[in-house]
Amino acid sequence: MNKPFIYFLCTGNSCRSQIADGFMKMLGGDKYEVKSAGLEAHGLNPRAIQVMNEVGIDITKHTSDVIDPEILNRADYVITLCGHADEHCPVVMNPNVVKWHWGFDDPAKATGTEEEIIVQFRAVRDSIKSRIEKFLSEGI
Prior knowledge:
Elements: E1 5-10, H1 16-27, E2 33-38, H2 46-54, H3 69-74, E3 77-80, H4 83-88, E4 98-101, H5 114-138
Parallel strand pairs: 1-2, 1-3, 3-4
Helix pairs in contact: 1-5, 2-5
């Protein structure tokens, strides 16, 4: 049996989609195929790596990838994590794809001291984790 395939999308595939990818792989176990991508590839954000390490998830081997239309159209779920990706996501040709938008603030745009910025990254990380837990428990 094929596993449901989840494709997380964001603008740069550097923070939010990488965090969601990491949590879904950990919390969903091997029940799902998971990939993430962006409208552009900005590279992995070092602070995203740091806050995921704090919760025991290593995303250092993830790559920052541009959306692949072929992957997009074979996904079961396409989940955008920022408004820009939601508005500019390529057209999904597969009528069976479930497309959802889970909006989260971009922690990469946080300003202030290093500690204030990391607090924003942790808040977004924890919000994404909660949303993924809801998806896993309720299927939505």
